[in-house]
Amino acid sequence: MAENCDHACSGGSESCESRDFHVSLRAGSKVKKVIGIVSGKGGVGKSLVTSLLACKMNKLGFKSAILDADITGPSIPESFGLGEKRASGQNDCLDPVITDSGIQLMSMNFLLENENDPVIWRGPVIAGAVKQFWTDVAWKDVDYMFVDMPPGTGDVPLTVFQSLPVDGIIIVSSPQQLVRVIVEKALKMANMMNIPILGLIENMSYVQCPKCDEKIYVFGQSNIESIAKSFNLPVLARLPMRPETSAAVDAGDIESLEAPYLDEAAEVIKKL
């Protein structure tokens, strides 16, 4: 069977699973740890969590970076107020775009002539672009790189898991009823690819009353704790819905936010 394998891994043959698909950083680049931020569905706030975690680790004194692997729906640049910025480089090498606080970013929007232009590419081309964000960007002494993945379990997550040295993933969910299915899809894919799961983060968990501090569960009481227990995973954070967060993201000023609810997640990341 091995001689007939096209290495697309669609058949899950043993010969493909044993192959090393990892690609190398370009000479001079350095990334110590890679953390994937994933979810089984869209709209749960992966990009927000990715940005907040990068800011958190940066404020703790580490050099952080974001590789925006959501090629067709990138939103990272806008959160940092860099929607008009374009990447530059020379000799087949791109320099990451640097935020005000020193976070290194690479996103498809930095390469488009117009940030509103759609990226109408098929899966293999998109997957190739993600690999090039790893191999052709001059990443400078990064302690923690966060990879913002598109939703689901398609080409891009598969490419990231196979091609990048992912040290662990964080699964982002929301309090809706389908959360168990969402978490389980992402969890099963990570297990199939032998990628460690660091834990769960629930976004849009609650609203806190500004007058009495009561927590209001807009989407109903969450069952994230029971889900985490059933999979033997920790809940790293439960992010509230805050007008300050929305305002900062819309203004491109996410770096100004403090995120004490991510303290436990930061401690887990530091132990990698």
Structure description:
- With 272 residues, the protein is α/β, with parallel strands linked by helices.
- It has one domain: P-loop containing nucleotide triphosphate hydrolases (Rossmann fold, 3-Layer(aba) Sandwich), CATH 3.40.50.
- 30% of the residues lie in helices and 18% in strands.
- The protein has 9 helices and 12 strands.
- The chain has helices at 14-17, 46-59, 76-79, 123-135, 155-163, 179-192, 224-230, 243-250, 263-270; strands at 31-38, 64-68, 89-90, 93-94, 97-98, 104-106, 142-148, 168-173, 197-202, 207-208, 215-216, 235-238.
- The strands form 3 sheets. It has an 8-stranded mixed beta sheet, with helices on both faces.
- Helix 6 links the parallel strand 8 and strand 9 (197-202).
- The model is unreliable at 1-18 (pLDDT under 50).
Number of helices: 9
Name of the CATH homologous superfamily = P-loop containing nucleotide triphosphate hydrolases
Enumerate the spans where pLDDT stays under 50 for 5 or more consecutive residues: 1-18
What is the CATH T-level topology?
Rossmann fold
Mean pLDDT: 89
CATH architecture: 3-Layer(aba) Sandwich
